[in-house]
Every structure is written in structure tokens, then in C-alpha cells.
């Protein structure tokens, strides 16, 4: 049973009543869900988790769903924590781990957030939802809306990965392909939602996707036996997962499950769309819109994240940093990870490995550090991107150094 008490603004003191459909605060900032953690601490123990479901719903007391009949689940969460022994050895990080979110339903971490958001829509009696997405959020929305019997209206850039488009159509969503970026898709939802009767579930425009994604933080602590790694690499587009994990760390400390120590939170973006990196390097608290955003990592093509202030605060408070890498470096790192450890990462997750190599070389990370990388999706959903490394050339042979295909 949830211990949800209320919602509050992330930027101002205003509070909101639970049990109602909210979007942003009146001031325009995202809302955060709050719980009675003192009550949860007395009536719930981390030792009880072993008897809970092997999904993110093992943390139900700190998730917002109050009606079991409203729960919409496809088995999301409790993804594997894998030691990348070979990549770690080659990079000089013997304690390198991968949290593989590509195992989730619809092949990405987006399943966590949308499972929670759609469950809350069902609980609140919402019958139509809409969002703009660069790809994987669209797939997850379509799947969970189908399972819930909720009508899904999805706006995606027309160059979205083919896998995402086909998934959405297969799940019965109403799909609109847009000649533009995710920001254009979001604008179209905002312009039409009132007339169409849609509940907007764009990134951070509603409070419950954070709650699903924060379970990544709970899982990491549990899988590391209630300690946290020295550093966490997170591919950051909208940044909801990073914001959610930071919230989870605060909640777990209040529950008495972990101490005050925090991992260094490391934001990874693409050279072609790096608004958070630029703001971090310039010492700013908010991002400026990134013009002409361009990257093969569809999930990183977010010109200005709504949660920019929350992302930057977490990075700075943790002593972390922000890194931008090229698409080529990301794909090559992804191919190297696959060859060395058998993990086929999405380009977003692969970007973290390119950034990791750079931070090891700079001395920001050392061989004694226990490092966790989030692979946020399955590489199989990005075959168009990886195909640039592996052209179908008759008689091609592998390059022994890079593992890539070199035509004869």
C-alpha cells in the first residue's frame, strides 16, 4: 500500500492534493510526489523485499498507485546488474558494472516510468493520453496504454527509429509523424490537448514517470547490498531517470536503508545535442535551447530538458560532471562492449562508455572506483544507427582492433 501524502513543486513551496490529475505547478516547474517516509520506515523493512515481486513494484510503498486494480504491469524493472569484466579490464576499471535496462518490456528503461504513469491514469479515470517522444517513450506509452485500455496519441519525429514506429502502430496507438524534433512534438501536444481531451504525459509534464524511474536507484542499492557505487554514468536527454535516482537516494536515507553518501552523477550527452553539458561548463543553473539538434542517439536529442535545473543540481551536489561525445565514438564503444562482454547497448548507453574512457584518461576516475553505467535500451532497436559500422560488404572481414567490418 502506498504511503503517498501529497505532491509539491520542485521550485516553489506550493503543495498539491493527492488523488487528482496534475501537470505542472502554477509556476511552470515539475511536481514531485511525496510520501510519509516515517510511517514507511516503521511499517516496511528492506529485508521484506526478498519476498516481493521481481519487478519495480517490490517498492510499492514508495510508489503512488493506491488501488491494486489500477496496476498496469508487463514485468518492468528488477533488471540485471552485470559486471563488465573485459571492458573494465581494458579501460582500467576492474569494478565496472552495467545496469541493463534493455531487458525491460519494449526494450528500454521507459517502461518503468510509463508503467507508473499509465497506472495512475487508470486510477484517476483518465481515458486518453498524449505525448511527444523521440522513440522509446512512445513505444512504452503505446504498450501500457494498450494493456490499460487507454487511448494513446503519440507524436514522433519522422526520422524516429523504425522499431519505435512499428511498435506504436502494432500496439494500436494514434501516431503522428512530425517534421521536426521532440520539442516540436511536445508543442503540438500542448496546443491540442485541451480541445482533444488528452492528459499530457510529456517528460516531467506529469509527476508519475519520475516515480517509476526512481526505482532504478532503489534497485541499484539493493543489488549492491545497500551501498552505492562511486560513480553513475547516465545518458541524459530529458534526464528523468537521473532526477528519479537522486530522489530515490534521498528517500532511502530517510528510510534508514542507506547513508548520506552519494555517487558522482555523470551526465552523458551527444556532441550534436548537449545543452546540459554546455550549461554545466558555463556554470549556469538552466539550459539554453540547443539549435539544430542532431544525433543518432534518439533519446539524447532533447534540445532543452524541462528538468534542467534538477539535473544540474544533482550533478553539482554529487561532485559529478557532464560529458559530450561524438556519435561515432558512441557507436564504436557500443560495438566494443558487445564484443568484449556480450552486452548490445543502445547508442545512448554506448555513449556512456565513450565518456567513461575519456574520464579514466583524465584521471577523474581511478582503478579503485566502483563505477556503474546505465544502458537505457536494447541495441537491437537501433540497427539503422549501428549499420553505419557494419556495411553489408561481400567478403568483408573484422578489424582485430575495433571489431568493426572492413571491406576488402
Anisotropy-based shape: globular
Corresponding CATH architecture of the domain at 81-106 and 210-386:
3-Layer(aba) Sandwich
Instruction: Determine and state the CATH class of the domain at 81-106 and 210-386.
Output: Alpha Beta
Rg over CA atoms:
20 Å
Strand content: 15-25%
Order of helices and strands: EEEHEHEHEHEHEHEHEHEHHEHHEHEE
Report the strand count.
15
Binned, the helix content reads 25-40%
Main sheet summary: 6 strands, mixed
Number of distinct helices: 13
Major sheet strand order: 4-5-13-10-11-12
Mean pLDDT: 94
Distance between the termini: 62 Å
Structural class, by secondary structure, is: alpha/beta
Question: Could you name the ranges where pLDDT drops below 50 across 5 or more consecutive residues?
Answer: none
CATH topology of the domain at 81-106 and 210-386: Rossmann fold
In words, what does this structure look like?
With 408 residues, this protein is of the alpha/beta class. It has a domain at 81-106 and 210-386: Rossmann fold. The protein is built from 13 helices and 15 strands. A 6-stranded mixed β-sheet has the order 4-5-13-10-11-12, sandwiched between helices. It has a 4-stranded parallel β-sheet with strand order 8-7-6-9. β1 (4-9) and β2 (15-17) form a beta hairpin. The chain is globular, with a radius of gyration of 20 Å. The mean pLDDT is 94.
Amino acid at each position: 500500500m502506498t504511503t503517498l501524502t501529497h505532491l509539491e513543486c520542485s521550485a516553489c513551496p506550493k503543495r498539491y492534493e493527492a488523488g487528482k490529475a496534475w501537470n505542472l505547478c502554477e509556476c511552470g516547474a515539475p511536481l514531485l510526489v511525496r510520501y510519509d517516509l516515517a510511517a514507511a520506515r516503521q511499517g516496511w523493512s528492506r529485508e521484506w523485499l526478498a519476498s516481493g515481486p521481481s519487478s519495480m513494484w517490490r517498492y510499492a510503498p514508495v510508489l503512488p498507485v493506491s488501488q491494486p486494480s489500477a496496476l498496469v504491469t508487463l514485468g518492468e524493472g528488477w533488471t540485471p546488474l552485470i559486471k563488465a569484466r573485459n571492458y573494465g579490464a581494458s579501460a582500467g576499471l576492474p569494478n565496472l558494472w552495467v545496469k541493463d535496462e534493455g531487458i525491460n518490456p519494449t526494450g528500454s528503461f521507459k517502461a518503468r516510468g510509463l508503467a507508473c504513469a499509465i497506472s495512475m491514469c487508470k486510477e484517476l479515470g483518465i481515458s486518453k493520453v498524449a505525448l511527444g517522444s523521440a522513440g522509446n517513450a512512445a513505444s512504452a506509452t503505446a504498450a501500457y496504454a494498450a494493456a490499460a485500455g487507454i487511448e494513446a496519441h503519440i507524436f514522433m519525429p519522422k526520422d524516429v527509429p523504425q522499431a519505435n514506429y512499428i511498435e506504436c502502430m502494432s500496439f494500436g496507438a494514434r501516431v503522428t509523424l512530425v517534421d521536426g524534433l521532440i520539442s516540436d512534438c511536445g508543442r503540438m501536444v500542448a496546443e491540442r490537448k485541451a480541445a482533444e481531451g488528452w492528459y499530457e504525459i510529456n517528460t516531467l509534464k506529469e509527476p508519475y514517470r519520475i516515480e517509476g524511474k526512481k526505482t532504478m536507484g532503489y534497485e541499484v542499492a539493493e543489488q549492491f547490498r545497500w551501498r552505492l557505487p562511486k560513480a553513475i554514468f547516465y545518458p541524459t536527454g530529458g534526464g528523468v531517470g537521473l532526477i528519479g535516482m537522486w530522489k530515490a537516494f534521498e528517500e532511502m536515507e530517510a528510510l534508514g536503508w542507506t547513508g548520506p553518501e552519494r555517487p558522482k552523477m555523470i551526465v552523458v550527452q551527444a556532441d550534436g545535442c548537449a545543452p546540459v553539458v554546455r550549461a554545466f561548463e558555463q556554470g549556469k543553473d538552466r539550459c539554453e535551447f540547443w539549435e539544430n539538434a542532431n544525433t543518432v542517439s534518439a533519446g539524447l536529442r532533447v534540445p532543452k530538458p524541462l528538468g534542467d535545473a534538477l539535473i544540474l543540481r544533482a550533478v553539482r551536489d554529487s561532485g559529478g560532471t557532464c560529458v559530450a561525445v561524438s556519435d561515432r565514438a558512441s557507436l564504436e564503444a557500443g560495438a566494443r562492449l558487445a564484443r568484449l562482454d556480450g552486452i548490445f547497448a543502445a547508442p545512448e548507453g554506448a555513449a556512456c562508455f565513450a565518456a567513461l574512457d575519456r574520464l579514466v584518461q583524465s584521471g577523474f576516475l581511478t582503478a579503485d572506483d566502483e563505477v556503474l553505467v546505465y544502458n537505457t535500451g536494447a541495441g537491437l532497436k537501433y540497427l539503422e544507427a549501428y549499420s553505419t559500422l557494419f556495411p553489408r560488404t561481400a567478403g568483408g572481414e573484422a578489424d582485430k582492433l575495433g571489431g568493426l567490418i572492413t571491406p576488402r
